[in-house]
Amino acid sequence: MNMRVTLLSLLAIVLMMNTSRAQQVHPDIYHPCAHHKAMGASMLPESVNAQLQDYDVTFYHLDLNVSSLNTTVSGKVKMEAKVTASSLDTLVLDLMNYLTVDSVRVNGITRSFFKNNDQLFILISPALAPDAAFSSVVHYHGTPPSSGFFSGITSAYNSTYGKRVTWTLSEPFNARQWWPCKQDLTDKADSSWCFLTTDAGEMAGSNGLLTNVVSLSGNKKRYEWKSKYPIAYYLISFSVADYQDYSIYCHPQGLGDSILIQNFIYDHPNCLPNNQAAINATADLIELYSDKFGMYPFPEEKYGHCLAQIGGGMEHQTMTTLGSFNFELVAHELGHMWYGDDITCATWSDIWINEGFASYTEYVALENLYSPADARWWMTQVNNNVMSQPDGSTYVPPSQAVPGNDWRIFNGRLSYNKGASILQMLRWELGSDSLFFHILRTYSDQYGDSVATGDDFRDVVSAVTGQNWAWFFDQWYYGEGYPTHNIVWHQVGNELIMNVHQSASWPSVTPFFKMHLELRVLTSQGESFVRIFHENPSQVHTVAVQGTVNSVQIDPNEWTLDMPGSIAVGLGEPEQGFVFNIFPNPATQSATLSLECRPGASVSYRLFDVSGRQVMEGKAQNGNNTLDISTVEGGTYMLRLTDGQHVSSRPIVKL
């Protein structure tokens, strides 16, 4: 969420929503995932120690004691890795200073260690050779502080069901708040295990498959979770509470087998009845996404949910942590299994790879499992939020993608909403749904189990289509703002002639947006939809029509980011010999008069107030003319143009 958007403004937006069926389906366009990630931004420094690049992680095994009552953790973490440096005499791990390290072994030998700047330094002698495989085991304990929504580990109470719950949320920089690891997006572990020992009356959920539950002395149980798929450090998780297991299955076409959907929900008589229908809908979502994006990435393990007292959700690989089973929330976090988990952003600057894509999966879910009208309503709210401010890039500059600036990384307007809009516009520009989803499946095939940047996705689009799409990404992904299109139209026989002018909201960065526009043309014989390509700020488009044109509408199906502009009829313009438009309208200090007239014509203008008093006059040239209205009082005026033979007028409002 943008820091300039307050909680009061969020409430105002929600209150402005009407009570249509679609809006009841979508209660909060500020996605809970985005909202609460932003609100709990970490202020911890990120690891910058170059020694973290001296090895490549292949395996993590967390064997921890945990409880729903507090954030205390104890136990050991084993890491297997391979040396990538010329030698390795100091092994560096990320771990907060407030966690106590009891002992460290490397290759079974007890090693000396010290801690500094929230990192653990393990001394190895003799040094390990290049390409050498090694293992380390760190025994540790401590009670990490719980400091808001975005803590690495949090313990809280659910008053609805009367349950204590403890859960982790390590994104983006906080895995080291609760376990020793390497916080590097580009170094996914090839596999992971998470063994969780807790009181016998509780259950602990995590990534992968639950391979065993072992009863231990002291009225304890150990839940042994194992995953064989590559995983980023921040996606390793656990959640522990007095749960019950509600499991179902889905059957994606082409898999030849079922996929387990395992849900750890509170063991309360009302919890399952309150959530069962929403949980069951997860099966439809997995089957839909497998068809659209490629097969569910972790079919040999599961997909699942752990309920926690979290505002929104977090896409922990194969087992999302969430606070409710809201349809859009489930759709979003499930979408992350493809975009964010299987493919992970290579840098936090490219968070669009995670959040923009997962947000767009909400649109796909609504479009296919509810209705196109619901999806359009969703996109309308998304686009309105994006255009609530004139600037902003979906790409996060590296200088801003840093700890302490998490609000910028997880900006609901830019990373989530504009990110989803970009994919919608790409789908529109491609002009083919089959091609669009073929690109997404190709992208998954190429970058699954790995990381990617926005440029990587751009290159996939270019490779699949055989066209250079740099222009699209330069203006929408790296660029800022959005366009406004103003149209003056008239009809000549069976031709609709439109003078279209585009203005940009943030022209210092992105002065023009080359794009296709969809127009809804309503005539005496019905409606038709026209696709035009706008490649110049001012451009005349001519399209064939049947019947008398009554109205023109821009982007009726919410394909593009486009602020509604003025659409005016040029009364008798074919005979008059000129057409014009005035924008922005309303205007403040100045307005642009866009004129198209016959060669050699002399066109003059006069501005009248509501009493008929003239307040301004001048000459207008072909093209754009700037009218300085800074000294004109606020109000409604009439701008009248003439070429000596014909007259045309149009209202303008001065703010």
Condensed summary:
The longest helix is centred in the middle third of the chain and has 23 residues, at 271-293. Helix content is 22%, strand content 38%. Helix 4 (271-293) crosses helix 5, helix 4 (271-293) packs across helix 6 and helix 7 (372-386) packs across helix 9.
Description:
About 20% of the residues lie in helices and about 40% in strands. A hairpin with a 4-residue loop joins strand 9 and strand 10. Among the domains are: about 90 residues, Aminopeptidase N, middle-beta domain (Immunoglobulin-like), CATH 2.60.40.1840; about 80 residues, Immunoglobulin-like. The two termini are about 30 Å apart. The chain is elongated. The protein is an alpha+beta fold and about 650 residues long. Helix 4 packs across helix 6. Strands 5-4-8-2-1-11-14-13 form an 8-stranded mixed beta sheet, with no helix packed on it.
CATH topology (level 3) name of the domain at 482-569: Immunoglobulin-like
- CA radius of gyration: 29 Å
Number of helices: 13
Structural class by secondary-structure content: alpha+beta
Principal-axes geometry comes out as elongated
Q: What is the spatial order of strands in the main beta sheet?
A: 5-4-8-2-1-11-14-13
- CATH second-level architecture of the domain at 482-569: Sandwich
CATH top level of the domain at 482-569 is Mainly Beta
What is the number of beta strands?
A: 36
Return residue spans where pLDDT drops below 50 for at least 5 consecutive residues. 1-32, 34-47, 571-575
Beta percentage is: 35-45%
Query: Mean of residue pLDDT?
Result: 90
